[in-house]
Amino acid sequence: MPGIDECLFEAMALPGALGASLVDWSSGLALGTAGESPVGDHETTAAETAELARAAAEYESFAPGPGPADDGPPLEDVIVTTRNGYHVLRFVETSFDSSVFLHLWLDRSAGNLALARIRLRDLAGELVLG
Amino acid sequence: MSVHAAVAVSSMLLRLAAERATGALLRDHGTLFLEDGRIVHAESPATPGLDVLLTAGGRLPRSSWQEAVDRAGPHRQVGRFLVESGRVGGGELEICHLGAVFDAAFFALGPGSGPTRFRRGATHWIGSLRSVSAAAVERETVRRRELLDSVWPYPVVDSAPVVPRPAAPGQTVTPRQRALLHRADGLRTPAQLAWDMGRSAFHTLLEVRRLAATGLVETPRDPTPIPPTTLPGWVTDVDSPDIALLRRLRDALEATL
Predict the structure, then answer these.
(1) How many degrees, rounded to 5, is the angle at CA B100 between CA B110 and CA B43?
(2) Contact B91/A26, CB-based, under 8 Å?
(3) Pairs across A and B, CB distance < 8 A
(4) CB of B57 within 8 Å of any CB in chain A?
């Protein structure tokens, strides 16, 4: 019975992982956190990443357009790369009305962006299916 | 953090958390359930509960929820039963439950929420899922109030019927906003729409404020009447009108007409 903590724990096991959280992008609430926050406060990071995720989720330019709904979530990831880090935001689809995503912060020299993206996709799926 | 954050939302809640109390904290707009001082559940008549949130989407049939309550309710392990019987994923239930807890707490800890009582030892039939610290719930409640006001500082839209307005040419309406506007018939309030959509009440309030801020929903004029202006004391405080003087004045005026 994997829950939020197990999911974040698994995310933190990725090479270079510095911090992970599950955030609601509509309100900016952190539902769970692990590791460090880039600003030393997970709640602030949650509110800020939520704004980014909300923009991606709501602006029409990022909408994938019509297609079969079972092909996966309309929006998959938002990726931000910085001089020394990576941020991967992975949207989580639930069977009820929700607006949550996983946020993984990686050290750039130790992290592997492609691997992190694939792993987060799997974790987001496992989190919901149980 | 702003100045408001320093003001305790509920001093009783923080005291109970400090003494690691177990029981139900009852307020006018909702109830918080504590276990060893941590919040394990919350419900409010203003917010859709887990049952509404989980069944509205259609994946969990109402009968399936009812069966879980009937079978596991007496043991106070409905949450565990839902997951172990494969009705809901573990993580999914945690996400839904946490959302419902923060949602109900926002209204339960609302200002002017009347007297607070504590029923020591009371537990909820949902059972033990994920707990959150009272301090975190309190901080989030304050943050949510500020968030609403930063979006559109007109609390009147929170309780008024949602009246949609036509979008301006080229104005973006997001999918979640469209879903809300589609159900807004000019009669239903944000709370009623939240139940209808199986969406958290706070999320619905926030969306309505965002819609009002962009002009896609009417902002009603504040119905609270303007308090009557009071005249300064020197105008109203008349000791005793000099009747004799007034009579003489009247007579004098009549004589000149």
Answers:
(1) 55
(2) no
(3) 96
(4) yes
